[in-house]
From TrEMBL:
Keyword list, A-Z: Ribonucleoprotein, Ribosomal protein
Signal peptide: none
PANTHER family recorded: 54S RIBOSOMAL PROTEIN L1, MITOCHONDRIAL (PTHR36427), LARGE RIBOSOMAL SUBUNIT PROTEIN UL1M (PTHR36427:SF3)
Family the entry assigns: Belongs to the universal ribosomal protein uL1 family.
Domain of life of the source: Eukaryota
Identification of the protein by name: Mitochondrial ribosomal protein L1
Coiled coil segments of this chain: none
Pfam family of the protein (one): Ribosomal_L1
SUPFAM superfamilies: Ribosomal protein L1
Gene Ontology CC: ribonucleoprotein complex; ribosome
Amino acid sequence: MNIVKPFVITQRILNSNKFLTCFTQVNLYSKNTKTHRKKLPHEAAASDKWVTRNKGQQLVEDKVDKLIAERQVVDPVWLMKEYKTQTFSIEDAINFHKELARPDMLNNIEGFLNVRFLLDMSSKKKNKFMDNFKGNIYYPNFFADGFKKEVVAVCKNPAEIEAARNAGALFAGYEEVLKKFEKGEISDQSYDFLVCTPETFPDVMLLKKKINKDKIPSVKSNTVTENIAEVVSHLHLSKDYETSKTSDEQALLKARIGPLNFETSKLVENLGALAEKVKTHKKYATESFITSCVLYAPPSTEKFKVDISRFTPKVVENIKQKEDEVEEVEAAVQ
């Protein structure tokens, strides 16, 4: 086999009196051509991966971390870096934010209180994890934030049509609404949810090519219902939430739970409702789905970690109960 000797191409780029040299090596063969490239300097592995860590330094760092973890806060003011992150009750954290929002402080009493959940996305299998998910929630204590969802309702009964319109539906009706979908007068961008009654569901499915698959009504999502007006009202005033993965095992979920001028009890109730709704996305039993909860209220930079154990114990019990029921059914079938 004839082999052509490799050659080296050297390219120099002048930039601010600094030279960058790139080497590209190409081996040419008579039958197969293989390319081998030497990594550029900026693609090389981080230097700390190649340096052996000083064991003595590691022991000192571990000792410092242990001391910080054991320290207890005894004064009303302390250096955060010298102590472990403090956990507060939900009520205390809300009151802290309300104090900061006073007119003589940040003057942000009409601002919104936000929550950040850290979620455990693990599953029964070590190498399998939950995907990102999103949803919407109708809070027990509604608040206006300038955003409302557009809902289209398909129903036959004149009383249901009128009730759906009064509840905030963008369009409500039967034949006229279906014709709007056929003609393309109702596009996926013009509405957020499509609801219908069981009676009109077959007619809606005939138009599924005209409807985004994520917006097709279903019993599971409670968008095929007899209580059309109630569902329209809840969806119209609902708030969105969505997770963002920080790693395979963990994800963050951020959402608003109400304005700071709400009563503290209402904000706690909304937080509990969100926690319960988020837990429904967990399919596998773990020690805890919501592993951490932080409350914050921009523009304030203060963030308070809170104890939500009152909302989290049920998640494992409920999931285990469902799994036990499934196992009983499977055993009965076998």
